[in-house]
Design brief:
By secondary structure, this protein is mostly helical. It has one domain: Mitochondrial carrier domain (Mitochondrial carrier fold, Alpha/alpha barrel). Helices cover about 70% and strands about 0% of the residues. It has nine helices and no strands. The radius of gyration is 22 Å and the shape is globular. Keywords: Membrane, Mitochondrion, Repeat, Transmembrane, Transmembrane helix, Transport. One of its GO terms (cellular component) is mitochondrial membrane.
């Protein structure tokens, strides 16, 4: 009896230790990735909340002509943001992004690890190994989103406001949104976010595991010694491919989410038409209006910076997480 209790305590302690390591590694990975790719995220958001059709016609530095988009390309947008807002403009909303991303990735990896541990005891686990990574990723993404969503919304608002600032900092944005819209205002766009994150996180984790298995198999074919461990370059490549694939599949839902998040934001008109409060009656109405007013391309605004951001972001997160887990496991 006493031995059974001891085993149970040991197993519980081991599970808690693994969860703690995964949480720390996830937070570190999320923080590093967020800081590195923040400029691309800011550019992506500016495109996504720009109602005017993205045009290659000249959007000049001093402002914009009605009907002509302010931002027309990634390089042009970066140059214009730095010119009007300084280099710090490319990291606008990064504090809120860090506050969102670090707990998000921590929760994500803890849930994913615990899910894998839970299902590994099933006799059917090996048979459905490939599918389980997609299911676990979807669950992990949903849990992480629910736990960190208000900071995602604040990050979007701060990154999209431009100059002059509507809100000087994260606290002022949170207080004003809460006063005007209540708690529901801090969760605006949660439904399309969850509808996006379930397939996105599932595809990201699932395709990462799939790419790793394929790479292991290729290594085994090349090296008869049986050593199939992945090199740093291979790990990064798998994360890069997973992020690229997942984001390409789910980008339109991300555009809709961003539109909900900035409803009612009274940013300067030189950044284009504003999205009025309660502009969309629902997700289907948002899709219908975007397509009717901006064309099908409207659902893919910001795709290039989004893909350019998502791929290295995913690669950094998976690589830094696994490296941090390995270091913490060997030292603690």
């Amino acid at each position: 009896m006493g031995g059974g209790d001891g085993d149970g305590d040991g197993e519980s302690h081991g599970s808690l230790h693994r969860s703690t390591i995964n949480a720390i590694a996830g937070a570190v990975a999320g923080g590093v990735a967020r800081t590195v790719v923040s400029p691309l995220d800011v550019i992506k958001i500016r495109f996504q909340v720009q109602l005017e059709p993205t045009s290659t016609r000249a959007a000049f530095a001093g402002g914009m002509t009605p009907g002509i988009s302010k931002y027309t390309g990634v390089v042009q947008a970066a140059r214009l943001i730095v010119q009007e807002e300084g280099i710090r403009g490319l990291w606008r909303g990064n504090v809120a992004g860090l506050v969102m991303q670090m707990p998000y990735t921590a929760i994500q990896f803890v849930v994913m690890s615990n899910f894998k541990t839970l299902v590994s005891s099933s006799p059917q686990a090996a048979r459905y190994e490939g599918s389980l990574s997609y299911v676990g990723g979807a669950l992990a993404g949903s849990a992480a989103t629910l736990g960190s969503y208000p900071f995602d919304l604040l990050r979007t608002v701060l990154a999209s406001q431009g100059e002059p600032k509507v809100y000087p900092n994260m606290r002022s944005a949170m207080v004003d949104i809460y006063k005007r819209k209540g708690v529901r205002g801090l969760y605006a766009g949660l439904t399309p976010t969850l509808l996006e994150i379930v397939p996105y996180a599932g595809l990201q984790f699932g395709s990462y595991d799939t790419l790793k298995r394929w790479t292991h198999a290729l290594n085994q074919l090349k090296d008869g010694s049986g050593d199939t461990s992945l090199s740093n370059t291979q790990q990064i490549a798998c994360g890069f491919g997973a992020g690229l694939f997942a984001k390409l599949c789910c980008h339109p839902l991300d555009v809709i989410k961003k539109r909900y998040q900035v409803e009612g934001l009274m940013r300067d008109l030189r950044y284009g038409a504003r999205i009025e409060d309660r502009a969309y009656k629902g997700m289907l109405d948002a899709i219908r209006r975007i397509v009717a007013e901006e064309g099908l391309k409207g659902l893919y605004k910001g795709t290039l910076p989004s893909l350019v951001k998502a791929a290295p972001n995913s690669a950094i997160i998976f690589y830094v997480h696994e490296s941090t887990v390995a270091w913490l496991t060997s030292h603690f």
